[in-house]
TrEMBL record:
Could methylate the ribose at the nucleotide 34 wobble position in tRNA. The keyword Lipoprotein does not apply. S-adenosyl-L-methionine binds at residues 82, 104, 125, 133. It comes from Collinsella aerofaciens (strain ATCC 25986 / DSM 3979 / JCM 10188 / KCTC 3647 / NCTC 11838 / VPI 1003). GO terms for molecular function: RNA binding; S-adenosylmethionine-dependent methyltransferase activity; tRNA methyltransferase activity. Its EC number is 2.1.1.207. HAMAP family: tRNA_methyltr_TrmL. The keyword Transmembrane helix does not apply. It comes from the Bacteria. This is Putative tRNA (cytidine(34)-2'-O)-methyltransferase. It is an enzyme of class 2 (transferase).
């Protein structure tokens, strides 16, 4: 069984999609606080997450709590920290049953200090830049400007990539894929390597 770890996730739909993927693959979902949304029964029902009761999910007060409760060290070989700040790609990594695939928050990724504490555990998903992969990147930005947003709105829009993910231009986090896409890509590679049924 693999473990998907979301460090301070902010968008409930991403967490919901990842939870669904965990249910169908038998993976355990770990949510490291702070969360950008509530997990109370009413919120889960309203979001239509009918599968939530079938999800193996644990919530933690923070990173140290997560490490302690799972018997991990900050640079444990079972950790795979997904970030653009890595030389090795996820496909160059070796996955074993019980490994932890760690993804950071949508707006800021995994904190720099966690990456610096375990650089050999860092992995990235290779992808083209938005301007190289999308012919209409300039048209998208022009369209957003034509909607008559205020200057503050315009600045917020420019902090999003073509897929609507928030982007910090000084950061190297995954921006062209949303969190749920990224988690699925890496999880399925890990499952492939460990001969998951039907692959």
């Amino acid at each position: 069984m693999f473990n998907i770890v979301l460090y301070a996730p902010e968008i409930p739909a991403n967490t919901g999609n990842i939870g669904r993927t965990c249910v169908v693959t038998g993976a355990h979902l770990h949510l490291v606080e702070p969360l950008g949304f509530s997990l109370d029964d009413k919120t889960v029902r309203r979001a239509g997450l009918g599968y939530w009761q079938n999800l193996d999910v644990t919530t933690y007060a923070g990173w140290e709590d997560f490490l302690a409760r799972n018997g991990l060290s900050p640079a444990d070989e079972r950790l795979h920290l997904l970030t653009k700040k890595a030389r090795r790609t996820y496909a160059q990594s070796t996955y074993r049953d019980g490994d932890y695939l760690v993804f950071g928050s949508e707006s800021s990724g995994i904190p720099e200090e966690l990456l610096a504490a375990a650089p050999e555990r860092c992995e990235r998903i290779p992808m083209l830049r938005d301007c190289d992969s999308l012919d209409n990147a300039e048209a998208w930005e022009a369209h957003e400007e034509s909607l008559g947003h205020t200057e503050d709105d315009h600045e917020a829009i420019l902090r999003q990539d073509i897929c609507g993910n928030f982007v910090n231009p000084d950061d190297y986090r995954i921006s062209a894929l949303n969190l749920s896409n990224s988690a699925a890509i890496v999880l399925y590679e890990a499952l492939r390597q460990t001969n998951f049924a039907g692959m």
